[in-house]
Amino acid sequence: MIRLENISKSFNDKLVLNNVSGLFEKGKPNLIIGASGTGKSVLLKCIVGLVKPDNGTVYFDNRDFTNGDDDIKTEIRREIGMLFQGGALFDSKDVEGNVMFPLDIRTHMKRAEKLERVNFCLKRVGLENANKKMPSELSGGMKKRVGIARAIVNNPNYLFCDEPNSGLDPQTSILIDELIQDISEEFNITTIVVTHDMNSVMGIGEKIMFIYKGQNLWEGTNHDITHSGVKELDDFVFANKVMNAMRS
CA dihedral in degrees (104, 110, 113, 119; nearest 10)? Predict the structure, then answer.
């Protein structure tokens, strides 16, 4: 569980986040949605500690991450997995090396133990026998799956996904969404997904936070979103449906 209390952040006197509070639940995908420039990416950076909020507190299972000492912050960071927007694989490392990298820098496991864990994670994302492939040999969807394997290799308690479907075709996007959902449930991870993809919202949005002009304007589920009664959210949903129809 991750809890936000009154998170605010400004850059150059421009208020980007304004008293954002909310709760992200364990064992399911929690989605942060909103148009570009609304503050959702800044909110994610505040949650993971890349940006320090001007006011407010982020709690990881009741541990104060924002104001905690170095030991607390280090402990929490070791429990975090990240799936970056572009995959962010090392071009010079093969699939096995990419997935093993967090184990190399964060653990004292023996090589055989690392390899066993890497193979387990690759199998879990449907990429067994892909160990020696280089990133240049992978499709966009395969790169995202390698990124997921790397994100979970350390058995994280918290998983953060930044626009996981960016650049993917609709069919591959569905596969990635379902994989994120399955892994969240299977390993009981608190997963936060930043997205503007309405297909993802309707497919796996068990818990959704809608950010509008730096504020948490609405929270609910994919079953509630089409009758939220919030004009700004209705406009966002409609605009995305139009864009998806134009792409198809």
Answer: 40
Condensed to tens digits (0 to 9), the pLDDT of residues 128-168 reads: 989 999 999 999 999 999 999 999 999 999 999 988 988 88
Q: Quick: pLDDT tens for 41-80.
A: 899 999 999 999 999 999 999 999 999 999 999 999 999 9
Say how many CA atoms lie within 13 Å of 45 toward its Cβ: 13
Of 242, 168, 148, 158, nearest to 198 by C-alpha is 242
Nearest CA to 199 out of 224, 169, 229 is that of 169
Q: Map residue 203 onto helix, strand or coil.
A: helix
105 Cβ contact list (under 8 Å, min separation 6): none
Residue owning tokens 């572009």: 86
C-alpha distances in Å from residue 191, one per residue of 41, 90, 182: 15, 24, 11
Report d(CA 27, CA 180) in Å as an integer.
11
Q: CA 174, CA 182: separation in Å to the nearest integer?
A: 12
- Asked: is 2-79+160-247 a CATH 1.20.210.10 domain? The reply is no
Burial of 11 (0-12, 13-18, 19+ CB in 10 A): exposed
Please state the domain extents for the chain: 2-79+160-247, 91-155
Three-state DSSP class for residue 126? coil
